[in-house]
């Protein structure tokens, strides 16, 4: 067996190539995570998610991916950026969570690949796993001493917080493993109380049925009870991280303020006016169920309905267009958006709509953002 490159060398390579932290875990069964996945699945807390839940025996056992795997070299990469404030909105915009504003997974993968290349050059097997269903990344990072589990389930790095993506190099090279980091949350429960949908029923447990980040990615109708709470989020949700005191690093903000500001929003009309090909080319890096752009449109219709701007002629035209679409899910969500915007007059034409789901949407009581009852806008009256 060849000699593995020293860990200090592996860490230095990772840090030089875009990683912010590198640690080592044993490539062994993650027993407690296997039990967590199984028990949460049996309680329905996974809300039908596949990912690591699809085959927990595999995602918690690195040896199912590499039979003679010995170590997981785990890397974390920061995706934090100061955020631009959208003070003067001139059109409805959808908010994108920080992690999805750029392809941070690609950069993380590139950093891990440089480690994998070094291991291969020394005669070892090395396989990079990033956001892959074959490995529960947070548990690998926890075991590698990278950080601790927050009550919001995110992994936090001491003195840096949780704005990190995580990945590993699985290798048959043997290394001394790191000690897990100790808890840094203490008695703080800000993430739990700040979740807009109460998706954290107890410390360290997420109920995906209520998590906006998952609801945006789930197939089918967007649950009616969470549509208003979605506000302007079009992809992901950062509330449980934004509320975390460990994530507030003014010092870092000052040090890094020379960076370009994060572009956190997408014009909603862009999603509702473009064709499938355009949407997949612009937003295809997001997780979209079955890669079907209708789900982007479904989400965009809710965000449009939640807009704080009074409906413009363009918005009214867009709502009308989706109220007459052949897709009953989109017609239904356009009904909801029309009601939110006080555009009930547009719904008369749908009274005899043959779709049960559209009829259900017509029967919902929806809290209005605007009152257009006395509005003489021809576009509304035109039906
Ligand atoms: C499925 C998934 C989701 C789901 C479910 C998230 C979840 N909490 O399970 C949804 C779509 C909701 C989601 C959302 C997000 N995700 Co996600 N997601 C994943 C994925 C694919 C699998 C996660 C998983 O296996 N969960 C299973 C359960 C069992 O794990 P867990 O909730 O972490 O449970 C642990 C804790 O409960 C802890 N624990 C147990 N008991 C107790 C008790 C206490 C008191 C405490 C504190 C902890 C604790 O042990 C459990 C593990 O054994 C991973 C990628 C991967 N391959 O791992 C990314 C991943 C977890 N997601 C990530 C990110 C960035 C996000 C978002 C921030 C994105 C966003 N802005 O919208 C949010 C965060 C929401 C949240 N609070 O988790 C990062 C997390 C990075 C980090 N620093 O933690 C990952 C690792 C992707 C990556 N490779 O970087 N995600």
The averaged pLDDT comes out at 93
In the CATH hierarchy, the third-tier topology of the largest domain is known as NADH Oxidase
**Helix fraction by DSSP (H/I, runs of at least 4):** 25-40%
Q: How far from one another are the termini?
A: 76 Å
The description of the largest β-sheet is: 4 strands, antiparallel
Q: Give me the count of strands.
A: 9
Rg is 23 Å
One letter per element, helices H and strands E, the order comes to HEHHEEHEHEEEHHHEHHEHHHHHHH
Q: Which CATH top level class of the largest domain fits?
A: Alpha Beta
Strand order of the largest sheet: 1-2-7-4
**Class by alpha and beta content:** alpha+beta
Q: List low-pLDDT spans.
A: none
Q: Could you tell me the strand content as a percent range?
A: 5-15%
Q: Catalogue the ligands.
A: cobalamin
Estimate the global geometry from the Cα principal axes: elongated
Based on the structure given, which CATH architecture of the largest domain is correct? Answer: 3-Layer(aba) Sandwich
Number of domain units:
2
Give the helix tally.
17
What does the model show?
By secondary structure, the protein is an alpha+beta fold. 36% of the residues lie in helices and 11% in strands. It starts with 6 loop residues before the first helix and ends with a helix. The structure holds cobalamin. Cobalamin (B12) binds at residues 32-33, 36-37, 40, 49, 51-52, 97, 99, 130-132, 135-139, 149, 151-155, 162, 164-167, 203-206, 208, 211, 213-214, 217, 236-238, 240.
Keyword list:
elongated; 2 domains; 4-stranded antiparallel sheet; 17 helices; 3-stranded mixed sheet; 9 strands; alpha+beta; 383 residues; NADH Oxidase; binds cobalamin
């Amino acid at each position: 067996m060849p000699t593995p490159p020293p860990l200090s060398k592996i860490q230095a390579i990772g840090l030089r190539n875009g990683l912010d932290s590198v640690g080592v875990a044993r490539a062994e069964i993650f027993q407690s995570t296997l039990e967590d996945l199984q028990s949460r699945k049996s309680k329905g807390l996974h809300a039908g998610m596949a990912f690591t839940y699809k085959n927990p025996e595999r995602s918690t056992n690195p040896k199912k991916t590499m039979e003679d795997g010995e170590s997981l070299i785990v890397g974390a990469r920061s995706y934090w950026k100061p955020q631009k404030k959208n003070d003067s909105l001139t059109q409805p915009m959808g908010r994108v969570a920080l992690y999805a504003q750029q392809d941070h997974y690609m950069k993380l993968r590139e950093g891990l690949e440089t480690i994998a290349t070094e291991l291969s050059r020394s005669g070892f097997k090395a396989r990079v796993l990033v956001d892959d269903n074959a490995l529960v990344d947070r548990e690998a990072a926890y075991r590698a001493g990278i950080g601790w589990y927050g009550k919001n389930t995110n992994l936090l790095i001491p003195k840096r917080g949780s704005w990190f993506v995580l990945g590993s190099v699985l290798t048959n090279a043997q290394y001394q493993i790191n000690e897990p980091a100790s808890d840094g949350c203490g008695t703080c429960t800000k993430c739990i109380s700040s979740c807009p949908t109460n998706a954290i029923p107890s410390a360290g447990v997420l109920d995906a049925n209520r998590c906006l980040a998952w609801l945006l990615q789930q197939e089918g109708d967007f649950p009616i009870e969470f549509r208003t709470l979605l506000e302007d989020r079009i992809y992901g949700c950062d509330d449980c991280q934004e509320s975390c005191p460990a994530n507030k690093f003014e010092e870092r903000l000052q040090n890094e303020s020379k960076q370009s500001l994060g572009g956190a929003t997408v014009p909603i009309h862009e999603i509702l006016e473009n064709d499938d090909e355009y949407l997949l080319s612009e937003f295809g890096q997001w997780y979209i169920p079955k890669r079907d752009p209708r789900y982007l449109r479904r989400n965009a219709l809710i965000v449009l309905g939640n807009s704080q701007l009074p409906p413009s002629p363009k918005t009214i035209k867009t709502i009308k267009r989706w109220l007459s679409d052949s897709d009953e899910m989109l017609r239904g969500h356009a009904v909801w958006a029309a009601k939110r915007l006080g555009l009930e007059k547009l719904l008369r034409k749908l009274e005899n709509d043959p779709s049960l789901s559209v009829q259900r949407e017509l029967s919902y009581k929806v809290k209005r953002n605007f009152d257009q009852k006395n509005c003489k806008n021809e576009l509304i009256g035109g039906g």
